[in-house]
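Weekly structure sync, notes
Attendees: PL, DS, HV (note-taker this week)

Item 1: EGF-like domain-containing protein
DS walked through the input record. Source organism listed as Desmophyllum pertusum. Sequence as pasted into the shared doc:
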Amino acid sequence: MFAAMVRGIRIYPWDWRNWICLRLELYGFYLSSEMCTSSGRAEITSKPCVGDQNCGQNAKCKLPRASRIQKQVMDSYRVSLPNNVTEQSCHCSHGYHGPSCQHYGCSSNPCLNGGSCSEANGTFSCACKPGYHGYTCQHPCKSGYHGYNCSQQCQCTEHGSCDIMTGHCNCKRGYYGTYCEQGCRPGYFGYNCAQKCQCKNGASCDRVTGLCNCTVGWTGAVCDKPCSWNMWGVNCTLNCSCWKSAKFCHRFTGKCICSLGYFGE
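Item 1 (cont.): predicted structure, written out as tokens:
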């Protein structure tokens, strides 16, 4: 088995008919995306850790689990690796950050969503604006919380949502109040109950949509049309049972009003 301090080897596997570069560390092999430039027998190299993920100058490359090709090579040399880690990652040196450890301190403006960055002891920290949290202020407050570091609980009822920065309750249609605890008063509807209903003839207004619910004997979008001669009831949806000799059907009661010379129910 190879010594852990060996930085790299070059191997020519018969199955692939070309050179591949491998790096051997305490964590296992690392497969370079570049082929070795010369053939010959295996030799120790000082090739840096580059390939599918280039960790740059400020990191160490960690690849605890081998790819399929690597595993074939390692099996042939009886080298085993731990199998509890699935992918390569860069372990940044102190003060560096980013996918390839290319950034240092506040130089790359790492704080998101308006957070402010400060440096101390070779590293950085973010002071998040209200409504956000996380190491780089990358996470908005989850539902029901607001304020600095999302530490304050919202007071809104189920009829409103909470502003993650201020905690102000934004009411759903049909509700108003500091905590959206009140339904619209009769005659009003919509967001914060600010719109006035247009319904007529005693009709009520849906506090969410503003649609009119007509009283008996009336129909139309704003309940301004009386029932036709042979209809009655709520929204004029019921048929009258009068004979043709009836003059008309009472739109409120459904009672038949007889023509001159006729009588009966």
